[in-house]
Each structure stands twice: as C-alpha cells, then as structure tokens.
Amino acid sequence: MAKLSVEEVKHVAKLARLAITEEEAEKFAGQLGAITDFAAQLNELDTTNVEPTTHVLPLVNVLREDVAAEGLSRDLMMKNVKDQQDGLVKVPPIMAE
C-alpha cells in the first residue's frame, strides 16, 4: 500500500480549504493511499471491448416535443397587475438613487 506523505495530505487539505490536525493528516495519509492503490488496480483492467458510458443504467430522458403555442394576451395578463405604466409591469426599485 502506497501511503501518501503527511505533507501531501496537508497540501490537499489546504487546496480543499480544510483545517486538519497533525493526527488527522497521519490518519488520512493511509486512507488516501489505499484509495490511490485501488485506483491503480482499476487501471490494470483490460477495458478494450468495453464501451465508455456515463451511467451504469441505460437511462433516457423523456421530454415532450418543443411546440410553439399561443401565449396569453397582454390585456388578459395586465388585468391582474397591481401597478403598470405604458403597458409594462411597474416594480419597486431595488437600488436607492
């Protein structure tokens, strides 16, 4: 098992903006080493006849057809607008002048 150095673990923690103690760095060094060893084992597999996939299950999105439809008329929409001016919806300002 290739154990990562404590300095490497601290560097990764710093990149991830994590505060870890010296004891945690030593503990994580062994754990991260085991993970990298497992990844190395996966690289040894023969995947010549395996098609690349993005998901293990054959999922397909079910989408409706994009069809243009008639929208509401301006008069009907403006009927429920509390404050309007020149056919536009008037909203309170969000920035002070």
Summary of the model, kept short:
With 97 residues, this protein is mainly alpha-helical.
Question: Can you give a write-up of this model?
Answer:
There is one protein chain. By secondary structure, this protein is mainly alpha-helical. The protein has a domain of 38 residues: Glu-tRNAGln amidotransferase C subunit, N-terminal domain (Histone, subunit A). It is built from three helices and two strands, in the order αααββ. Strands 1-2 form a two-stranded antiparallel sheet. Helix 1 packs across helix 2. The protein is elongated.
Task: List its traits.
97 residues; mainly alpha; Histone, subunit A; two-stranded antiparallel ribbon; 3 helices
**Radius of gyration, taken over Cα atoms and rounded to an integer in Å:** 29 Å
CATH topology of the domain at 6-43: Histone, subunit A
For the record, the CATH class of the domain at 6-43 is Mainly Alpha
Structural class: mainly alpha
Question: Using DSSP, what is the number of strands?
Answer: 2
Give the overall shape, derived from the CA principal axes. Answer: elongated
Nearest-integer average pLDDT: 89
CATH homologous superfamily descriptor of the domain at 6-43 = Glu-tRNAGln amidotransferase C subunit, N-terminal domain
InterPro entries: Asp/Glu-ADT_sf_sub_c, GatC
Protein name: Aspartyl/glutamyl-tRNA(Asn/Gln) amidotransferase subunit C
Subunit structure: Heterotrimer of A, B and C subunits.
Keywords: ATP-binding, Ligase, Nucleotide-binding, Protein biosynthesis, Transferase
